[in-house]
Task: structure prediction
Amino acid sequence: MNRRVVITGIGWITPLGHDIETAWGNILAGNSGVAPTTIFDAKTFPTTFSAEVKDFDLKKFLNDNEFEDHRNVSRQAGFALAAAKMAWKNSGLESLTDLDKSMVGIYLGGGEGPLDFTSFAQAAIDGWDYEGNDLDSTRWAEVAAKVLSPVKELEQDPNMAASHIGHCFGLEGPNFNTLTACAASTQAIGEATHMIRYGDADIMISGGCHSMIHPLGVTGFNLLTALSNRNDSPTTASRPFDRTRDGFVLGEGAGMLILEELEHAQKRGATILAEIVGYGSTADAFRITDIHEDARGGIAAMRMAIEDAGVDLKAIDYISAHGTSTAENDKIETKAIRGVFGDHAPNVPVSSVKSMMGHLIAAAGACELITCILAIRDQVLPPTVNYENPDPLCDLDYVPNEKRPANVKTCLSNSFGFGGQNDTLVIRAFEG
Amino acid sequence: MSNKRVVITGLGVVSPVGLGIDETFDALVEKQCGVRRIESFDPSKFASQIGGEVRDLKVNNFVFKKYRKSVKVMARDIELAVAAAYLAVKDGGLNTKCIVDRDEADAVNIDSTRFGANIGAGLICADLNELAGALSTAVDNPEAPIDRAFSLGKWGEKMSNLTPLWLLKFLPNMLACHVTIVHDCQAPSNTITCGEASSHLAIGEAFRTIKRGAADVCICGGAESKMNPMGLMRPILNNRVVTDYNDRPEQACRPFDEKRSGSVISEGGGLLILEEYEHAKARGANIYGEVLGFGASANASHWRDVQSDGRALQIAARKAVADAGVSFDDIDLINPAGLGLPKEDAAEAAAIHGVFGKKATETPVLCTKGALGNNGAGSGAIDLAVTLKAMQRGVCPPSLNTESLSDDCQLNVVRKDPIDLRADLALSFAGALSGGQTGALVLRRSVS
Result:
C-alpha cells in the first residue's frame, strides 16, 4: 500500500556545464564556474562577478517546433526546459507512448523571470517628477505602456517555467510552483514526493530554476551585504566554512529530476538512480533577517527527514550542505548538524558544491540533490573548494579541496532559505 | 493511507468590502461593491482606472507590539496576509504567540512545532515610488530638463539610496515568513506562486500535510495586491482588464454576463485555519466544515490560451470529487473563479457542463468577483471562505453585475438578489490566468 518514490532521470544546466557528465566532471575536479559578470555591465556594482551559465543555446535541446513555441521564455525558464528535456530523456520516458498524462505532474521551485530592468528604469526616470520629488503616475503610465513588453511581463511570473514544461510534454497532472527563496527546489522535490506517495501522480518532473544575475537581483543581494565582494579573485570567492568567507556567489541555472512511483518505474524497466526516502520541512518562525541562533529550524528539518526515512543517524554517509559561504549560514548549519548528529557529527563528511557552482538560489537544492545521486553512482564525494583557513565555529569534515572516494549509500541534502525556510531531503541507493 | 480528517476552524478575510469574514459576507449579501475608482495613485492615464482597494488597513493592528518595527519591510501583499492571519487565528480561537503577546489570551493553546503555513503569493510588485526615487539619481545627464537617460553604471553607485532590507519586502515567501514569525508556526511552511490557482493549491497542499500527519493545524490560503501602477499596467498590457467602465466602476466586472469584457484588479487576502479533526474536537473548536477532496491539473494546451472546454478544470474537478469519495450529483454549490473575462468565463461554464451534465444549469453558482475584483493569489481563499460562510448561514450572496447570462454561460449563477441556500457540499476551483495551473477543492458544510 505504501507508494515508494524513486528517481529515474536527472538533468541540469549549470555554470559548470550543460550536461550531466561535464558539470559533474568539473565538480570532481574542483573547477570553479565563477568569473566576472558578463550578462550586464556590473563594474560599478559592489560585486562584479557571478557564476553564469555560459553559451546556453535552448535550440540544442528542443526541436524546431518546440523552439518556435517557447522562443519567448525568460532566461531561467529556458534553463528549466532544457534541464527537463535532459531528465526526461535520461529517464527513458521518451519512448513510452501510453503514459496517462493526467498522472504526470510538475512541481518546481521556479524563480521569477528577470525584470526588463533597462525599460523599467527608463520608465521610472521618465515618470519621476524631479521638482516634486515624487513619481508622476500619469507620466509613468504613458511611458510604461510604450516601453514594457506584454510578453516579457507575463513571462516573469514564477509559475511560467512549470507552464512551459507542462506544454512541452503535454502534462495534465498537478502543476505547482513554490518560491521559498533558497529552499525552493528542495521543498518542491519533497512535496512532489508526497504527491506521488499519496497517489496524486505517478510521475513528477521536479526541481528548480532561477537566474537573479540581473541588475535588480544583484542590487537586492548587495544591499543585504549577502554577496562576496572578493572582486579581485572571483574563483576563490565562494569559500564555504572557511574562516575568511565573506558572502555567497550568485549563480544561475536549473536542475530537474524525474520522480516516479516505484512499481511504475519497475514495470517499464526504468533505471533507478536512487530512492527518495525522507523529507523534512520547517519554519524558523524567528526573524526575516536572521537564522535562529540555536539552529532550531534546521535541526527540526533534518530530524523530520531522517525520521521520515526511518534510518539511523549513522546510516547517513554524506551531507550536501546548504553551505552558502556567508558567515552566518555556515556557522549555524554546522551547529544544526552537530545538534542532530551529536558526537557522531565529525565523522560525517559534509561538503558544499556552492564553492564551485555558486548559489543557484531557487535551483540550488535540485542541483545539489543531483550531485548526491552522482556521488552514490560513482562512490565519490564532491569537495568543498577554497577551504584554506579553518574556522573554530565550523569544525566538521568538509571534504576540503579534493574529491574523496567513499562508500556512499545514503545522502542528506539541506536547503535553507531567507526568512527561515528549512528543507531537507534524504536519498538512498535503491536496493529493491 | 491516512484516515485523518481535516476540518476548517477559522476564516480570515481582508477584502475591498470588509475586514473579516462576517463583514465581507454581509457586504456581499447587501450587494455592496468594492470596485471603485483607484485612489492609492493617480490612474487617470491608465486604460483601466478602477479596482478593488482595501481602504484603511492598519497593519499595526494585526501584529504584536514588538513586531511593529517590522512592518516597515512589508510590501502591501505581506500586510494583507498578516491582517488575514490575525483575523483567521482569532476566528479560529487559536491563542498563538501573537494573541498572547497582545494580552488577548493568557496562554498559547497550540503546539508551534505542529502548526504549519501554506500561503499563496503573487509576483510582488516593487514599490514604484521608492524604486523610482532611487533610480532617478542614476542618470547620465542629471541637468537635462527632460529626456534624462538611465545609467547602469551610475546605478551601481547609487543603489545604496535604497534601504538595506529592500529585497526582503518583495520575496514571495515573505508573506509566509512574517505570518509564521508573528504566530509562531514552526511546522512545514510553503509558498505557492501559481497566480489565481495559488490559494486552492496551497489549501490543497495543507490538507495533504495534515492528512499525512506532518502538522495538526495549518494556516493556509493566499494574499496579493495588484493595487499599484505596475500591478495595473501588467494586465492592461495583456488585455485582461475592463477598460470601458471607468465611469461606472461598480458595473465593470460582470461574471458570466453577456456584456462582460474583462477582469478588474484588486487586493485582498484570505487565510483559513485547517485542522486535524480530533485536534479540533479536543479543543472544542467551532467547525465550519470539512475539506473532503483536492485535485490539481494544468492547461497543457498553451500557457496563454484558454481551453474552450475547460479541460484542465474538468480534470482537477474530477480528481477532487473522486478524492472526496462523492459524485457530482452530490454537489449542491459551485464556486468558479468567474473573473468576468469573455473566454475564461465561457471555459469555466463549459467545464461545469462537462462534469455536471444536466445538473450544470440547476446547481447554484456563487461568484464574488463583481464585488471584489481579482487580486490573484488571494482570490481563491476569499472565495472558499465565502463559500463556507454561505453554506453555514444558508444564504448565497448574489453575483454582482451578472444580469443576463451569455449563451456560452448557461449556469444557475445566483444573481440580482441573495437566495436561501441549502447546501452541504461545495466544489470550488480556479486556474492561473498566466500559466494554467489549476486546483479544485470539495468542501462539506458540517462534519458527519
Residues 6-125+170-444 of chain B form a domain with the Peroxisomal Thiolase; Chain A, domain 1 fold (CATH 3.40.47.10).
